[in-house]
Write a structure and sequence with these properties.
The protein is α/β, with parallel strands linked by helices. It folds into 3 domains: 2-101, 3-Layer(aba) Sandwich (Rossmann fold), CATH 3.40.50.11060; 110-190, no CATH class; 193-366, P-loop containing nucleotide triphosphate hydrolases (Rossmann fold), CATH 3.40.50. The protein has 12 helices and 10 strands. It has helices spanning 15-31, 55-68, 81-91, 98-109, 113-127, 152-189, 209-217, 260-266, 271-275, 290-303, 325-329, 352-366; strands spanning 2-9, 35-43, 72-75, 94-97, 195-203, 234-241, 244-250, 278-284, 311-316, 340-343. Mean pLDDT is 83; it is low at 133-139 and 142-148. Mg(2+) binds at residues 210, 230. Residues 197-367 form the Hflx-type G domain. This is GTPase HflX.
Length: 370
């Protein structure tokens, strides 16, 4: 994929924010093995119904596509099926939106049966409202583009098949969920005599959640410098004090403008977040946009109904800001973070003792243990 990216700013979105978002979109393009040739930002207070951007701008993009030999134009937002199809006509290249990319990444990364089912469900939910007689919505990244859409009758058949499949997947997921719940109960019951604190590690994608999980529990969860390396939640344990046991869970990363279908699908996986006693929110403080990431993650936590739980911020990758652990310890507490926060470097294993102390302190203070 040779892509040109398009973003919009104006009204509620600052130019800086929009640029940050485009930078991330570039990461998403790379995650599906594509290359970004350049990007275009347009100032617009409201999206155009027909083209999302202005029609003049769309024609300009067509020239850029021709000049750079791009084959794809990626919009940094959700587009309607009509907008996509109108844009493709004007621009004369494949048009994708953020949802298409994220769904594609998820479907490539899903490893376990559950994750695979969840991604399939999200894809089908995404596809269903987009099926029209003349639609060409199927596997938009799969090369089948430009082919003529199915007829009215085929569409109806396809719709019925999708609904049936959705029903089936939901049932299967429900069974997996039930089994997991029972396993969890058994696991927790066997920990008699100790107070257990369930800690869910959450955060923006690539923040270092799995690295921290490994550092804390000496397990080896997959770590990689790419978006959405982890798609399955895994629990691991570590004993801290004789009468305290911390159970850590690694989770799938969050991202801004997460397709709603995915939130829906991954809610089940994120059930561990809903059941956690403490949320450990990992933040990459070496990234300029980290405060925006924090609010994005907190919004998703709200979606999951977990915003009332005690949150501890693990301000990670401090090794990119200072040279030594000692220097890190002399950094001021970031005033804009209200509440419990600890500076760490998961990779260098700095500050992990303090972080564990903090978890126990919060658990005692909030009396959140079983
Ligand atoms: N310099 C530095 N790099 C880190 C640190 N922690 C993690 N990383 C790097 O950040 C990248 C992402 O780490 P992961 O642990 O996979 O991040 P994650 O939050 O689990 O990411 P997803 O599963 O993709 O959401 C990897 O390249 C890590 O090596 C740290 O403390 N310092
Ligand atoms: Mg991970």
């Amino acid at each position: 994929m040779r892509a040109v990216l398009v973003g919009v700013w104006g009204r509620d979105i600052s130019k800086e924010f929009s640029k940050e978002s485009i930078k991330e979109l570039k990461g998403l393009v790379e995650a599906v093995g594509g290359k970004t040739l350049g990007y275009i930002l347009q100032k617009r207070n409201f999206p155009d119904q027909k083209y999302y951007i202005g029609q003049g701008k769309a024609q300009e993009i067509r020239e850029i596509v021709r000049g750079t030999k791009a084959d794809t134009v990626v919009f940094d937002d959700f587009l309607t099926p009509a907008q996509i199809s109108n844009l493709e006509k004007v621009i004369n290249a494949k048009v994708l939106d953020r949802t298409d990319l994220v769904l594609e990444i998820f479907s490539r990364r899903a490893k376990t049966k559950e994750a695979k089912l969840q991604v399939e469900l999200a894809k089908l939910m995404h596809e269903l409202p987009r099926l029209h007689g003349k639609g060409k919505a199927l596997s938009r990244l799969g090369g089948g583009l430009g082919t003529r859409g199915p007829g009215e009758q085929e569409t109806e058949v396809r719709k019925r098949l999708i609904k049936k499949r959705i029903h089936r997947i939901k049932k299967e997921l429900e069974e997996i969920k039930k089994r997991r719940r029972e396993q969890r109960k058994r696991r927790e019951r066997s920990e008699k005599g100790e107070r257990i604190v369930r800690v869910a590690i959450v955060g923006y994608t690539n923040a270092g959640k799995s690295t921290l999980m490994n550092a804390l529990t000496k397990k080896d969860t997959y770590v990689a410098n790419m978006l959405f390396a982890t798609l399955d939640t895994k629990t691991s344990a570590r004993v801290i004090y004789p009468d305290f046991k911390l159970l850590f869970t690694d989770t799938v990363g969050f991202i801004r403008k997460l397709p709603p279908e995915l939130i829906e699908s991954f809610k089940a996986t994120l059930e561990e977040v809903q059941e956690a006693d403490i949320i450990l929110h990992v933040v990459d403080v070496s990234d300029e946009g980290w405060l925006d990431y924090v609010s994005t993650v907190n919004e998703v936590l709200k979606e999951l109904g977990a915003e009332e739980k005690p949150i501890i911020y693990a301000l990670n990758k401090a090794d990119k800001l200072v040279e030594t652990e000692n220097e890190m310890n002399h950094l001021p507490h970031p005033a804009f973070i209200e509440g419990d926060a600890v500076l760490i470097s998961a990779e260098k294993r700095w500050g992990l003792g303090k972080l564990l102390d903090k978890i126990v302190e919060v658990a005692k203070r909030e009396e959140v243990y079983i």
